[in-house]
Amino acid sequence: MVDQSLFNPAYRGIGYWDAMRKPTYVGWLGTSAFMLLTFVGGHVLGSIAASLALAESWWPECAGRPWLRRRGLVGAGRVPPAWWLLVLSKVLLGVRNVVGTGWVSVAMVVVSLVAWLVAWRGWRVSGRVSGGGRPALPA
């Protein structure tokens, strides 16, 4: 949503964009199912899960402890929105086809609901890692 590439039919004039977008285009979503899966999946797995897995495999004795306390979470929670605003301001300078405010609003509501749910329910890890407290190596 931030760089708006997922919803732009001619994003930055990339030649192969249509080849990725058109075969699985979903009109009511305004994007391609393939691109949605690969972009979101790539960010979740590559940017988030892989980083956490690596860090916790390097220090397995710390894997069961929280990385940040309440103040650290509040501070860390301020960084992504600032980064998003910076990226979005640069994107809007050079792109004609941008996502409408309706889709941005829906995305913000979904993200807010997920954040609220995690905060309300609490983030809990159940059980211990098998194998003597050491995480399994990735396949």
Structure description:
- With 139 residues, the chain is an all-alpha fold.
- It has one domain.
- 55% of the residues lie in helices and 3% in strands.
Topology of helices and strands:
Layout: H1 17-21, E1 25-26, E2 31-32, H2 33-58, H3 70-94, H4 101-121
Antiparallel strand pairs: 1-2
Transmembrane segments: 25-55, 101-120
Keywords: Membrane, Transmembrane, Transmembrane helix
- Class from secondary-structure proportions: mainly alpha
Q: What sequence of helices (H) and strands (E) makes up the elements?
A: HEEHHH
Strand-residue proportion: under 5%
Q: Quickly count the helices.
A: 4
What is the strand arrangement across the widest sheet?
A: 1-2
- Termini separation: 32 Å
Q: What level of helicity do the residues show?
A: 55-70%
CA-atom Rg in angstroms: 19 Å
Number of domains: 1
Mean pLDDT: 76
Low-confidence stretches: none
The major sheet is characterized as: 2 strands, antiparallel
Give the number of DSSP strands: 2
Characterize the overall form. Answer: globular
Short description:
The chain has 139 residues and is mainly alpha-helical. Helix content is 55%, strand content 3%. It has a two-stranded antiparallel sheet.
What tags apply to this protein structure?
membrane; 4 helices; mainly alpha; transmembrane; 3% strand; 139 residues; two-stranded antiparallel sheet; 2 strands
